[in-house]
Structure formats: C-alpha cells, structure tokens
Amino acid sequence: PAGENPLRGTQERESLTMDNLLSHRNPLLRKSAMALLRVPRSIKRFSVGNNDVSGPPAVLANSFPKSGTHLLSQIVGGIPDLNNYGAFLSSMTSSFQFRLRSVHETERFLNRIVPGEIVRAHLFSHAGYGELISRNNIVHFFIYRDLRDVVVSSANYLTTMNPWHRLHRHFKGLSLEDAIIQSIQGIETEPSFPNIGERFANYSGWLTVEDSYAVKYEALMDHRRKETIRDMANFYCHHAAEPPEPDFLSHRMMAGIDGNRSHTMRKGGSGGWRDAFTDRCKAVFKEIAGDLLVELGYEQDLMW
Length: 304
Prior knowledge:
Elements: H1 8-15, H2 18-22, H3 27-48, E1 59-63, H4 69-76, E2 83-90, H5 103-111, E3 117-122, H6 127-135, E4 139-144, H7 147-161, H8 168-171, H9 176-185, H10 196-201, E5 213-216, H11 225-239, H12 246-255, H13 273-276, H14 279-295
Parallel strand pairs: 1-3, 1-4, 2-3, 4-5
Helix pairs in contact: 5-6, 7-9, 9-14, 11-12
C-alpha cells in the first residue's frame, strides 16, 4: 500500500532470526527457540563427537549475573562458523527453581558441549570445571562488572522484570532503595541468596585461571573496547586449530554488538549506580563489599 515502509517485511523477518529469538523479551519465544535447537545440537554431537579438533573450538560465554551476559554472547557470536544452540549452563538452575546444580550435573553438561558451539553461562569457579574446559578445548571468556551496578540491575530485575523468578516475592513492592539494599545484603531464608560479596566469591576464581579470559564489562563499553576485543580475538585464535586472521576476527566480533537484542538490558552503560545509590545504600555496600571494589580496581579506597 502507498506509504507503507518497503523494508517492513525484511525487518520483521530479521527480527525472527533464531539469534533474536534466543534473546527475545517474550520468554515463551525464547524457550521455544531453545527447544527447537536441541535437535540440530544432538545431530552435531552424535555426528562429530566431542573431541573433534578439526573445526572451530566451542566457546563458553560465562558471566557473573547482571554483568553483560548478552553483550559477551553477541561479541563471541561474531566469530565465524560457531553455532548458538540456545544452551545455558547456570550453577543456579532456572530462575523458577533456583537451586544449586550439582558438580556431577555440571561436569556432564561441560562434557556434552560440541565443537563450534557457543554456550552462555553463569558458572561458578571450580578447579574441576576448569580442567574440563581445558581438556575439551573450550575457549572460556568470563565477564564481570562494577558490583554497584550489579546490585542496581539485580534490584530492578527481581522487582519488576521477572515476576516468575523465585526471589521475586522477596523484592515485590519494595522501593528502589530497599530493593538495592536487599540485593547488597542478600536473603538469609530459602532460597539461598548470599550478600553481594559472597555471591561474587563463587565466581572470583575465574579471575586467576590461566586458561580463562576475564574481561571487565566497562572495558567493552568505553574507549578500551577496540583494544579489548582485539585481545579477546587473539585469545580465541590461540585455541583454534585453523585460526582466522585476527584483524578480520576482531572486526566481526565488534560488529556483533547490538544493545537492542537483549531481553534483560534496560539501558546498558556503566556507573548508573551513582543515580540510584542513596547514602544508606553506600554505607551498606561499603560495609559488605567496599574492600572488594578496591581489590577489583573499581576504587582506590572507601572514600567514594
């Protein structure tokens, strides 16, 4: 019809690609896409096995929750010849159940990752997991973020964005200040939700594992982005039997970033905690995890 956008059909088709469905805001569409992708993943696993080193290695896009999960998966999604089958490995199971996944379950999952697969994860650090990741030639990236931004993001997510999360009932109806403080302090009753320092401690081991690339979210959002992604590309190439040219690879990884393709991202960026933190929030955070911010290089002292 006259006046209709000629690109409308193309845009709608693009919006329904499998990658977009996996990050769609509608949880039913996300789950449906994941279910559909189990078939090609199973075919790939049984056809090539888990020890095929002739093709590209698998990639584990691991993150501390609310630290840039989708940003990292978009970046590694730019690596040629990789496939995202929708697999997600979390040490805490689905948000509805929110129970601790056993070591046996986790190791079984890691052993079933197929070559050339992208797996997103919230995976606790564990020596046994690190050994399996190296043994199976899985390229492991781990992203983390200023923990003050993390607790603000968690407060918003658990208060308004995911009513199906098992923790939602503890956050429902809270003011933003109270929700942030609860995210900092954690919840002592079931289900387990430790304070922010203890939650990060479950992942902090990945910062010192030699065969793991730890990256700050902020380094992918400011002037360091190009240099950081180039370094990530070199890390991947080091593990690939037939690595692509690093400049080409870093360009592809950079081009994959799209903040609109995330069902949890509100506005992205870093430093948003400054607008959300009250003096009370600052005092509680400093008491629980102030020293950790200094250790991670986000502050020089507690005078912030």
